[in-house]
Amino acid sequence: MKSLLVSSIEKYSGKSAVITALGLILREKGFKVGYFKPFGVGTTRISNELVDEDAYNTASVLNTGDNMEDVCPVKLDRPYVEFVCSVDPVALKKRVMDSYKRISEGKDVVLVEGAVEYKVGRALGLSDLDVSSALDLKSLMVVKYTSDFVLDGILAARELFGERLKFVLFNQLAGYKKVYVKDITERFLKRKGMEMLGTLPYDPLLAGLFVTEICDALNGEWLVKSKPGEDVIIEEFLIGAMSPPSALKYFRSVRQAALITGGDRADLQNLALETGNIKCLLLTGHLEPPGTMLGKAEEKGIPVIMVADDTLTTTEKVDEVFGKARIKGDAKIRRIKELVERFIDLKSLEVLNRK
Amino acid sequence: MLDQFFNPEGIAVVGATPKEGKVGNTLLKNILSFPEQVKGKDNTKQSVRIYAVNPKYEKILDAKCYPSVLQIEEGVNLAVIAVPAIRVPEVLEQCGEKGIKNVVVISAGFKEAGRGGAVLESELIRISDKYGLSVVGPNCLGIINTHTGLNATFGKATPPEGNIAFLSQSGAFALAVIDWSKVASVGFSKVVSLGNKAVLDECDFIEYLAKDDETAVITMYLEDIREGRRFMDVVRQVSKIKPVVVMKSGRTEAGAKAASSHTGSIAGSVEAFSTAFQQAGVVEANSITDLFDFSLTLSRIRDVKGGIAIVTNSGGPGVMAADAIEESGLKLAAFDRRTMEKLRDLHVANFYNPVDVKGDADSEKFGTALGIVSAAERVGAIIAILSPTAPIEFDKAGDYVLELNDKKPIIPVFMGGETVMRAVEGFKKHGITNYFDPVRAVKALCAVDKYSESREKVSAPPPYFKVDRKAIKKLMELREREEAKMGIGVEGFKVLEAYGIPAPSYGKAETTEEALGIADRIGYPVSMKIVSPDIVHKTDVGCVKLNVRREEVKETFFEILHRAEKYTSARRIEGVLVQQMIEGGKEVIVGMKRDMHFGPLIMFGLGGIYVEVFKDVSFRIAPLSKDDAIEMIKSVKAYRILRGVRGEPMSDIDSLVDVLLRFSQISMDFPEILEADLNPIKVFEHGKGCYAIDFKMIMGERK
User: Among residues 552-611 of chain B, which lie with CB inside 8 Å of chain A?
Assistant: First the structure.
């Protein structure tokens, strides 16, 4: 049995996405795949069971058949400081070791997901650093390429992880930096004893949110519902405050977008329905739009959501949820798998080399 | 086809009722007032059969009543429906089964009423398609043919007979116009309230009315145009035969917004509408007054061959008219020597144009002067202005106008109240409008002049260049495979190359090595610019460097990226464009926006940073003919700059014409290109051509 710890320097770097893709690919190749997340902080209640939401989603997709209590044995169910003060680290560690043992049974590969970022859980002895040494795991660092300075972050982590930090994968790359990262970073990492597995491009679909997710986040009211089974992914947002002729240019240069505009801006709403790139209308200010527009939206199957907040507040709320999109739904899962297959050098991962 | 709407042999009024005040009651009454005998196609007389449909009655007023159209034994070729919206689909199905092809749906409660209504309207369209029905409405007032006496509306009045056909997208406005027409003595040939235009729209009726002998002018009030290209094609043809006068509301931002929530229409650009109207030969009116002033004048005057003459008994109003003539672009006629001599012999105060017969002139003297002027060679039309001085008898003066009007069109401006009334009534009988305000008279004449000018215009077909379409197709396929969304940036230059639009040599660099390699190939100095969809005004943020020498390339590459990263995320930066340096020349812009209604709207203007301030631009809807391209360039004020100011050499206009034509062809060949800009184009002196320095393009889904 082989295991790999997937860790990150920053939060929301794409660990779950990478694990999901790797897990599916490995399974296709005939491996029995296990999934383990020692410490979860995103605790929520699903069908009356206390679970880590992220772990729950990943485990459901990979369908490993393990008990959720073992998949994520330690869940943060109270404020962190209180948690740190009230639990027995030795007992926690034992729980993690026991669960890991059960998860590993009969598996060819276990993919271990780190906490928020590699330092989180240090106070409990459950950080990625602790886990990698306790379970003796090689680590794959998923790095969101926010700027060139991420290199320093990787080096600092390497000093702490030591030899166990073996692989690096850059995520969400776009534009001219792609070439740079390939040419320069690869050489640099090699010199420092690490191996670059590849770079995943920024993908608007993966970063996108489902219309239902947006509606929930904004506490919106459905005026026109999505067609059943057609929950669309929104990749970008547009704020409609200009005149229709000026707006047209923006409406045209987006794809899979949602328009945030006042409920009274029938001119922009009607224009948005015609352009085809706008897949959802978010009407602000709790202003009811004209019936003619709703009729047309219904006809075209474009969901319309009314929210009570003004346009500015709505935009802020949307910004808040964007960039934290989860890998949910077949389209996103298919896409991340495609990207990993295409851009990641899977041969270098020793876990794949033999059963 | 549509003829049966206006000349039906059997009419069914579905939703007729004996209850006074109901739509179904007034409608039936109006239809029953249809004269019993009408002319058939071969001028024989035949009677029109009228049936009421309502399951609750056996007879309503004088009409036999049936439970549904299916029970009517004889043939029906026009059904007028006034049942509640929810029942309309069922009635339409029955019309289809019965073989009634022409239907007017008066009922409201469709698209205009919201979601449930929109569903009903789709249903209405589906049934119409299934049976091949022609449907007017829904949500309309109905139709009128004054010449047969058919009034299938629920209005209380019927307009007088005339030669103007009136189409209205607003039922309420149509109702008001019909009511007013009696008082104003404005006659109509046909009236159609278009309603929601679910099936038939203005284009269908314009085509029909073009062939209608009783119609001389087609007049319309529109709130939106659904099929812009078809509208242009139809009007372009029809306006060669008879004038099409249009008042289109929602021309401003506020108006468009109001129209949008009213009809659900999308606001097109103001430029696109007026350009389309101009190119198609529409006579555009901006107010109700203009709409009918223009229509009435055009119904009797088709062109003005020569200048305008003014004959007046009062200096002031004569001057007012002269001002208006110059302002509107018309010309005051210059009299020939003989005319002037005759006028001088008549002892008028001024025998030049405007002719002033003086305040002491009586009607005879005024009439004689009018006669002399109407016989003058270079006079195309006359404005006859009279103030109610003591010697003037308006009836007599009016007779002169009526008598001489056949020689040269005369527009009477008899100014006054009660004293001019009888003369004005006399004019009306002959379809002549009298104006109190000379400016209105001039405006109406100006409309005639514009119409005749556009009617006479012969445009050559747009040229077609041999181009490399495959290169562009390849580029588009490449873009589709690209997962991340990016507008077409540097790759766009390939489009220009394929279409023979000259541009400087270039290359896109992502590393310094690449930048040097490209610059070495092009030759020094070069220009370097950022490539990012987020940075539109590159110069403003210091992302354009000109005259870069070899030793500066690396440093400049970093500087540009560094500046750009302050402005946008590195993720949205594609690299640096290295371009051959083009120095000198005058800057112009060519742009294209695909209008939602009319298609590619091509723009031309002088370039530079002040372009947004001066807005000195001209528009045409593609495809452009060579004449269009030349007109576009000549119609901007900055044309004088291109022609050369103070001894400057003339710019290479021909090369710009060529670019406009090729650009127009790109816009026609690739509907997926939604917007594109050549900004700036540098044009050099005659014979030295022009270069497109920058090119931007927004693409939509592939068609």
Answer: 561, 570-576, 593, 596
